[in-house]
Amino acid sequence: MSKLSWILSLLLVAGLLLSGCASPTAAPTQEQPQPPAEEGKLPDLGGKKVTIAVENAYPPFNYIDSNTGQGIGWDYDVVREICVRINCIPDFKEAAWDGIFPAMQAGEFDMLADGVTITDERKLIVDFSMPYVIVGQVLLVRADEGMSIDEMKADANVVVGTQLGTTNEIVAKQNFPEERVKSFEDFGAAVLALLSGDIDGVVIDTVSAAGFMGENEGKMKIAGTLTSDEELGFAFPPGSDLRAAVDAALQAMKDDGTLEALNKKWGLTD
Q1: CA distance 34 to 71
Q2: Element containing residue 226 per DSSP (H, E)
Q3: Domains of the chain as residue ranges with CATH
Q4: What is the pLDDT of residues 210-226, one digit of tens each?
């Protein structure tokens, strides 16, 4: 090998060594793995629209504000807060109570928010969220009613109203003869019948009784308690993925006091 060739070879080897030691800035970098999700972080629904069935006739859970014509109530406030936490868009749809469970079972709505009592029978056709409050059933009467609840039960002339297809209807028929129970399409109609004197009482849950009394101040009172142990929850079509996300948000709202604050705002708790 000539001296020149030897020098060229030496320079070539040195260049290769320097190249091997250089920082690989020109080469594409490998994507770094993302850190694990923060423990306790709520699900993210990515802005998904969620359709919520409401009656808009069941204060304080949901009803129409006479001043604005808009739906308001506990359900509106709580579901909106849930959607803020799990990144969804609430779309409230008014629906009649009659037939609403078959509609939920068929997936016509993503969620039912209407002060729904959790029962074993309903669990056969829909899924429920965790309970958000426990209520009882009472007998709502006109403010000038002089009879006690026991006297009203014993009086063959007393007729009570309630809503068709509800646990309230079941409780009404457990406490009064069936022929003395009149079922209405919604509680608003039952309350109007009470105020007009067509019936003598309404079997209704404690929270809604307070809501209707607030809407008709000084016109009605509670004659007595019939039950005291019903759990309320949101309902979902069977197998809905939304239930777990809603439960996570509800639990977070319980933990930080938001749920209790909204319960107090709307009269679900004292």
Answers
A1: 42
A2: strand 220-236
A3: 48-133+232-265 (3.40.190.10), 135-230 (3.40.190.10)
A4: 999 999 999 999 999 99
